Amino acid sequence: MTAETETAEHDLPDDIVVLIDVPQYERAATFDVERGYSYNTLAATQNGNPLFWDDEVADELTDGAIAVPTTLSLWMRPHFWEPGADGEQVALQVHFDLKARFDLPEAVMTDNTLILHEPVRPGDRISHRQVLRSVSGPKTTKLGSGRFWVIDIEYLNQRDELVGVESYTGFGYRRAGDTGGDAS
Amino acid sequence: MTASAPVLHPSVAVDDTLPDLIVEVTPTTVVLGALASRDWRPMHHDFKFATERNGVADIFLNTPNQAAWFERYVTDWTGPRGRIGRMTFRMRDSVFPGDAMTFSATVTAAEVDESGCGWVDLDVTLRAVGPDRPERVCSTCSARVAVPVTADDNPWSRRGDDWRP
């Protein structure tokens, strides 16, 4: 599978064209950054970096504990369920909107960029906004036929300091021979 | 315990290579990584969904967890003073339970920017091989990490215009 993205607004529906470069879903997390949850990522990757395990090192280098930098998106991911929620809660809503809009039941991510700025710290409350950058014309890969799209996410802390920018390339597709099915 | 600085910028040169890291991937590796990143999508924990719905061989490593593996690999080399500024990776194939994944890297640039920050650019490759799968390149990653230019330099102290990832 190869990511092939391009801005091909000429063949895009008008309701998609108007969304390109427009911030969507500007919202704050419903929970604070928590040191304990970072340990799950450290354990999952067997990461023994003393910056995250030794308070003396953290005090010396970062003036106290920080979150594992590549956990940036974690702090904006919704709970799987919460009171009043309707259906599955998803993190990258623009991605799922595009799947639904183009009736593409499956999707994978092909590319990811992280640009890290001010460290995220326990107790921070992160907010973000999602920006659709491009949608390709129809493409066929070994997975199936669909479209690539690029979505940027800007992350801020509660002091409106930029903590990071992330970019995803997604490929929404329909498997060969699949003519039906719900978007998931 | 104090933060050591095993890699100083003047000691790094283009074409230097990093030690390989080899990890045996289990279903727990995949599921733990997905849940640690709060990624509840079923292709990262539900075999039937992954194989029958997505059409892939098994559940597979999710994107944020791959980022965390790349971070672990790079900072194993730099030590705790290493501060990643930018990371871009392309996932060409999936990593499945039963695979042995190998991380390797080569230094592609080493420069000090106008603010005095010492940057090292790395090309990192994640290969995997499984009992029923040939060795393949699963992901390629370009990482830009700041390392100390002197023994008492600390890239983490940089803010604002002094931090240009």
List the main descriptive attributes of the protein structure presented here.
heterodimer, A: alpha+beta, 6-stranded antiparallel β-sheet, 5 helices, 19% helix, disordered N terminus, disordered C terminus, B: 165 residues, alpha+beta, Thiol Ester Dehydrase, Chain A, 5-stranded antiparallel β-sheet
Tell me the layout of helices and strands:
The complex is a heterodimer of chains A (184) and B (165).
Chain A: H1 14-17, E1 23-28, H2 35-44, H3 50-53, H4 55-62, H5 93-101, E2 106-116, E3 127-135, E4 139-140, E5 145-156, E6 162-174
Antiparallel strand pairs in A: 1-3, 2-6, 3-5, 4-5, 5-6
Chain B: E1 17-24, H1 27-36, H2 47-53, H3 63-78, E2 83-91, E3 100-112, E4 118-130, E5 133-147
Antiparallel strand pairs in B: 1-3, 2-5, 3-4, 4-5
Provide a brief overview of the structure.
Chain A has 184 residues and is of the alpha+beta class. Chain A has helices at 14-17, 35-44, 50-53, 55-62, 93-101, and strands at residues 23-28, 106-116, 127-135, 139-140, 145-156, 162-174.
Describe the structure.
The complex is a heterodimer of chains A (184) and B (165). With 184 residues, chain A is of the alpha+beta class. Chain A has 5 helices and 6 strands, in the order αβααααβββββ. Chain A has one domain: Roll (Thiol Ester Dehydrase, Chain A). In chain A, a hairpin with a 5-residue loop joins strand 5 (145-156) and strand 6. Mean pLDDT of chain A is 89; it is low at 1-8 and 179-184. In chain A, strands 1, 2, 3, 4, 5 and 6 form a 6-stranded antiparallel β-sheet that branches. The radius of gyration of chain A is 19 Å and the shape is elongated. The longest helix of chain B is centred in the middle third of the chain and has 16 residues, at 63-78. Helices cover 20% and strands 35% of the residues of chain B. In chain B, strand 4 and strand 5 form a beta hairpin. Chain B has a 5-stranded antiparallel β-sheet with strand order 1-3-4-5-2. Chain B is built from 3 helices and 5 strands, in the order E-H-H-H-E-E-E-E. With 165 residues, chain B is of the alpha+beta class. Chain B has one domain (9-162): Thiol Ester Dehydrase, Chain A, CATH 3.10.129.10. The interface between A and B is large, with 48 and 46 residues. Strand 2 of chain A pairs antiparallel with strand 2 of chain B, so a sheet runs across the interface.
